[in-house]
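Throughout this review, each integer encodes one residue's backbone shape. One record appears below.

===
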Amino acid sequence: MDQTLPPTELILNAPPRSLGQVPLDWQPQPGNQLIHDGQVYTVLERRHRYQFTASRYQLHKIDLYVQLAGNAEEKSWLGDRWVLGDISCEYNARSELVRCAVNPDGPCQNCAHYQRRES
């Protein structure tokens, strides 16, 4: 059964603005990355909008809240996944979505708050 997906709107998280509607043939989950207009974005949140028609609710629209993915130099391999930032720093969140608490937008290089993590 071939089911077409409704329109998907990409919304940049910070600063909040719409990047437009894109046709997708897959359903990206938070943490997935996608390419739009030559930029790589990480999906933070996915929201479904429903519309009540013909006595039932139907999926009307999908909103994807995204943030720009950092470049490859700003990622570290941790166990079985890539995380943002320098994992040798005490403040690193060890997350695919958030770099750290004190400098979430980065970059890690030459950060004034850098403290080496003790093993």
Summary: The longest strand covers residues 39-53. Strands lie at 8-12, 17-22, 33-36, 39-53, 56-68, 75-78, 81-84.
